[in-house]
Write a structure and sequence with these properties.
By secondary structure, the chain is mostly beta strands. The chain has one helix spanning 37-43; strands spanning 7-8, 12-13, 19-24, 27-32, 50-51, 55-56, 69-72, 75-79, 90-92, 94-95. The protein has a five-stranded mixed β-sheet with strand order 4-3-9-7-8, with helices on one face. The protein starts with 6 loop residues before the first strand and ends in an 8-residue tail after the last strand.
Length: 103
């Protein structure tokens, strides 16, 4: 059974564009163009998007909190729950408030 969110109670129906490839922490994944990055990651089994003192994933799924922020195409703090997926995106786990793992 697929875990894709097809009709969000607040954001509405998810678009089902063409299947595209993107990378997540160096692994090639697929998702539908235009769907939220977090939705494509969820289908692939990725639930943690950043690490701080607590492990985070998707909490609100409407862009209000910052639990789903990740580094997207080199830019940290991108809210993946509302950012549309595009072909070739590079998505990386975020550590704290930066793009690099904190020592």
């Amino acid at each position: 059974m697929e875990k894709r969110i097809e009709n969000h109670p607040i954001l509405g129906e998810s678009p089902k564009g063409k299947l595209v490839k993107f990378s997540y922490d160096g692994t090639t994944l697929e998702g539908y163009e235009g769907e939220p990055i977090a939705a494509a990651l969820r289908v692939a089994g990725v639930m943690a998007h950043r690490y701080t003192a607590k492990r985070h994933g998707v909490f609100c799924a409407i862009g209000r909190c910052t639990d789903c922020v990740m580094v997207v195409d080199g830019k940290p703090n991108v809210r993946t729950c509302i950012t549309p997926l595009k072909e070739g995106m590079v998505v990386e786990t975020q550590y704290g408030a930066s793009a690099k793992e904190e020592a």
